[in-house]
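Appendix B, Record 12. Input sequence as logged:
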Amino acid sequence: MDPAQITAVVLTKDEAANIVACLRSVPAGVRTLVVDAESSDATRALAEGAGARVVVHPWEGFVAARRAALALVETPWALFLDADERLDDTLREAVLAAPADAPGYELLRTTEFCGRPMHCAGWADEPVLRLFRRECVHLEARPAAGGTAALHERWMADGTVGRLGGCLEHRSYPTIADYRRKFARYTSIEAGGITPSPARALATAAIAVARLGWLYLGRGGWRDGWRGAYVCLMSALYPAVVQFRALRRSR
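Logged structural output:
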């Protein structure tokens, strides 16, 4: 694939610590576009210094931000990245070697937690559609607890997509505190999109026990030691936390 036909798009908000490494991981010759949600740190200056085109766009939510960013892409292909993601060497080569006759390609993402890549609970080799033709995709929100929150959005292709080798390294949680901040933010957003129900909250809490066992034993959480145990516990509790946050808001 001709790299001049691809624009790598990164959405940012106070990502000075991540943006340069993210942009440097983009394949050579690919254009870079940073859509910044009015950062108060040096994100924009660092992105411009790394050669990116920078556009400031007020934050209107995850889904709206990605749709607005796609509308700014001027090349036939878009490669969407988060600022805390990096393409490894194999994936960079795979992007440039990908045939241009598919509507898009999934990348295999592995998330790091407290300094180590995870192998459990869907955090390893997670297929995410990130490289695609602009006109061949649409965006869907998939809140983990159900409801109408515009969160956990996914690009969906109109046609059969391919899959690239290599790894999309997701370095979102360097510390437990970082994880907890995002956990609180996302569960709060999701709580605003569901109808509070005491019965549903209790049922979801009961299901969390079974879900913990499934994630820890069935999905291999035990292989990641204490990190795996922590991720499995919090992932199991997530839907229940959303339900109880919704109840608290309704009082």
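Residues 225-250 form the longest helix (26 residues).
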